[in-house]
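User: What would this chain look like folded?
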Amino acid sequence: MKLVSFTHKGISRVGAVINDRIIDSLNQPNIPQNMLDFLEAGQPALDALQALSNKQSSQLALKDVTLLAPVPRPNKFLGLGLNYADHIAETVYEKPEYPTFFTKQNSCVIATGEAIHLPTVSEKLDYEAELAFVIGTRCRNVPVEKAHEMIVGYTIVNDVTMRDWQMRTPTWMIGKSFDTHGPMGPWIVTKDEITDPHNLTLKTWVDGELRQSSNTQHLVFNCYEMIAYLSLAMTLEPGDVISTGTPSGVGVSMKPRGYMKAGQKVKIEIEKIGTLSNYIIDAPEGFIANNK
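Assistant: Here's the prediction, encoded as structure tokens.
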């Protein structure tokens, strides 16, 4: 299944995509209406959503809904740096002995089709195409051989990065967490449809120019090793999103630099998942207070 979060007629809920239709969970008491609660409910909720696929009355046209990020506000949104050998080669770094994780704040998450903001404080706005996996089972101290059981599915993340802000501190967090700098989507493809996440082609285009082209078989630390490592330190929970790193071809390594500019469009495609597309605009200026 392709699990989605979406809005239709002002109401947000969970659904699934089949071809050009949305399987709608509205008014289904056994299906939680937000993705975190849905994943927390586990296999019974997945089965209930799947059972709706044969009901015409529970379907909407995909073109009539607005897709949200599949996990609009994950409790944990973690990225992994320096996890492709070719990307390490284009940087000043050496291959890490241990996985180099960082946090992206969940307020940076946006959906496919939404705008990435070019901040007023810097123009060093870079893209990073990444496979991400979503945790489906609460777990700790997971052995590598059981790690695949903890994953509910896979999605695409653009780990948008302000390069100068990233390098101001060793943790990278601020440079990775500007508002709108966590595009995610368009959906979560459940793991039964992706039997091997470590052999997927990945490509990035900026305004139609191919910038990144690689395969997840080149990951230094694979998805299962990441889960085993992280779960030694913390409990992983349903809806946690872990992005697995980017291959070579990022803007900072181009000559001249290939940073994104307002008016451009960035598109990421990962085999068996789909396409994540966003456009770039100048960030709004001045003080902003949203009292809701």
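The mean pLDDT is 95. If you want, I can go into more detail on any region.
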